[in-house]
Amino acid sequence: MPDPMLAQRDWAGVAAALDAHGHAVLPALLAPAQCAELAALYPHAHHFRSRIVMARHGFGRGEYQYFAYPLPAVLQALREEVYRQLAPIANRWNAQMCIATQYPATLAEFLARCHEAGQRRPTPLMLHYGEGDYNCLHQDLYGEHVFPLQMTILLSRPQSDFTGGEFIMTEHGAGASRAEAVPLAQGDAVIFAVNQRPVPGSRGMRRVALRHGVSRLLSGSRHAVGLIFHDAT
After folding, report:
1. What is the set of domains in the chain, with CATH numbers?
2. What mean pLDDT value characterizes the chain?
């Protein structure tokens, strides 16, 4: 299971980092043994509903697989608890951006909303990169109902299992753009905006658009888990 103290983490600090930068890091969310156990699932197709080879779709190089339901217990627990902590932030952001949508307090309620709209396919996924692989900048939008925050957990050890392969975020808005590499250690999670976020401007809050990706792996092998809270059509 994930850190039993997850609910006692500094969620106010997470909210502040998301407001300031569009992302926040949760250090050591999973232990090394948990990371290894999850990565070991990748070759076993029965855990997954589909496999995507990125180069076939112009997504970059490397591949990923979407988990099938039921999710591994550790990921199900994380998805439920992290959603519960992020829903108030998502609701505040939407209010600041004058977006009417508000999100229920629990993941089960939100997924019921997705499923009623035909978004029934699970979206948590595991990504695998080898030497020379990378992930193009993108947004994970899968249907009408989109939860505006998501999370990625690095399962491999930087500088030991792989080199390069940094998690990258970009922001674009109001004539300004920026890119940032987010350093992660094995077991660290990064929470980040899926599509857009509010940023203070001279005339009140404005929206900036975000994308994320992974820089080219220079050597080795890299696994990561992506936890997306909305399901897909």
Report:
1. 6-227 (2.60.120.620)
2. 95
